[in-house]
Amino acid sequence: MRDYWLGLKFMLSYFTILPVRFDKNDDLSKPRVLSSMLLFFPLGGLLIGSMAVGLLLLLSPLSWLACIVAAVGYMMLYGFLHTEAIMDVADALYASHSGKDPYAVIKEPTVGAMGVLWAGGLSLLKITAIVYLFAHQAYTLFLGILLISRLGLLMLFYTQTFRSTFLTTLKHAFSREHMIASLILFSILGIILNGSGFLLLLFLGLLSSYLVTQWLRYRLSFINGDVLGTILEVTEILLLLIGALIWL
Questions:
Q1: Which conformational region is residue 63 in: left (phi greater than 0), alpha (psi within -120 to 50 degrees), or beta?
Q2: What is the pLDDT of residues 26-84, one digit of tens each?
């Protein structure tokens, strides 16, 4: 049980800005800890999404302003980790047009103009879409989308190869049992939140994650952490739009 507890804490410390403390003797490199980290990954999205909804309800007298604060708050709660990835991937994509090595560009500590523009544009689109859902009180739809986007990344961990030592280590540690358990557990939770429509959204989300992955792999010839972050962001935006079109 301790390995599962450490995996949960590791997930929260890595994918959120929530304060988590570790003992100096905690071994986070154990395969079961790393596998548990991925097992609980969708739970992290559900947790920070619920906190964003709670913030919205707390500020509800502010009307539309509360929706904006909560939408930005959700992105703050994961530390803009995936948003930052868009900058690097956009720069790498444009660099590949001119024959440069996209992997060398994506590892540079600086950010180019195209990265800033794409990250800003997609962030604006994402925040607006979340605000639209919040304005229609589609809280459970929002939470279901956060589950699906992260389940999509778990699918990629199980099926793709990575140009990253850490991601490769996670992939090798991620057991089939944990993949199946996470899919079943959070699918049931999603159905409880959204009914049978969750299954349609889940299919569309997994398909979107796969197609975006294949396109980025074709353009960049590799997948690393920045690419995964970009896939999560794009998938969430697509699902927010699809969910609004179908259910609102």
A1: left
A2: 888 888 888 999 999 999 999 999 999 999 999 999 999 999 999 999 999 998 888 88
Cα-based angle 96, 97, 103 (whole degrees, multiple of 5):
5
Q: How many Å apart are CA 228 and CA 147, to the nearest integer?
A: 15
Look up residue 66 and give its DSSP letter.
H
Residues 6+ apart with CB under 8 A from 133: 139, 141, 142, 240, 243, 244, 248
Q: What is the pTM of this model?
A: 0.93
Mean pLDDT of the region 179-194: 92
207: Cβ contacts below 8 Å, ≥ 6 apart: none
Burial 209-221 (b: 16+ CB within 10 A, else e): bbebbeebeeebe
Q: Phi, psi at residue 164, to the nearest 5°?
A: -160, 125
At a CB cut-off of 8 Å and minimum separation 6, what does 54 contact? none
